[in-house]
Design brief:
The chain is an alpha/beta fold and about 230 residues long. The protein has nine helices and seven strands. A seven-stranded mixed β-sheet has the order 3-2-1-4-5-7-6, sandwiched between helices. α4 links the parallel β2 and β3.
């Protein structure tokens, strides 16, 4: 669970990859009711709202929902992948942005069978911003959590699920020092070591200042992952 400080950095800036992935995976298709599972602070929901009449966005973290971007086409609700606050057979398109590794795929598929209309689409996607060079510039080595996280997790193999497309590739994004600092501080695994490294004071401003003094290019690499499914029968 994210605490309020980390959620604020998460809300302040996320790389603009949600729209890129949706556009690539869904082309020009539009939908009636969209469901964004694990919406966080709303970046994924706002991207989804561009192609849906209305979006129901759910997340188990109240800290995230408190920071979520308000939008006339989005209803934010507490919920999770295996307990969706959505009516039966009401959803035309469901998205999971970096969420499936945290839920049981079979339970999520069962709940989606309940809420999705026949032939609804489900897009499981994620992205991984590669921060190794920035962390090395601070002389920080982040030890990965002992967590079987899978950026490419999807619903392939679940009952009545037909996989239509699956992609993994590298992209690059241009960011300011302020944006890069928000990305660095939006994860507890990085926030705590950076706080320990720089000590008391305004951690965000300290990290921004340190970045502005680093010989970095203002570009970050990221890997995007997505799998598009269709429910049948």
């Amino acid at each position: 669970m994210y605490d309020g400080q980390i959620a604020r950095h998460y809300a302040a800036y996320r790389p603009p990859l949600h729209k890129l992935i949706l556009d690539e995976a869904l082309k020009a298709r539009t939908f009636g009711i969209g469901l964004d599972v694990g919406c966080g602070t709303g970046y994924s929901a706002v991207a989804l709202a561009e192609r849906c009449e209305h979006v129901v966005a759910v997340d188990p973290s109240q800290a995230m929902l408190d920071e979520a971007t308000r939008h006339p086409g989005i209803t934010y609700l507490p919920g999770s992948g295996d307990d969706l606050p959505v009516d039966d057979a009401s959803v035309d398109l469901a998205t999971f942005a970096g969420v499936l590794p945290y839920v049981n795929a079979a339970d999520a598929a069962s709940e989606l069978h309940r809420v999705c209309r026949n032939y609804a689409l489900v897009l499981a996607y994620d992205f991984d911003v590669i921060l190794d060079r920035l962390l090395e510039s601070f002389s920080l080595e982040i030890v990965p959590a002992n967590d079987p996280y899978d950026h490419a997790a999807n619903l392939s193999g679940q009952q009545r699920v037909v996989t239509q497309a699956s992609t993994s590739r590298l992209v690059d994004i241009r960011v300011t020092a302020q944006q890069a600092a928000h990305v660095l501080l939006s994860d507890k695994g990085r926030y705590d070591p950076l706080a320990k490294r720089f000590g008391a004071g305004d951690l965000f401003e300290t990290v921004v200042d340190a970045l502005e003094r680093q010989p970095w290019s203002g570009k970050l690499d990221a890997r995007i992952y997505y799998t598009l499914h269709r429910f049948e029968g």
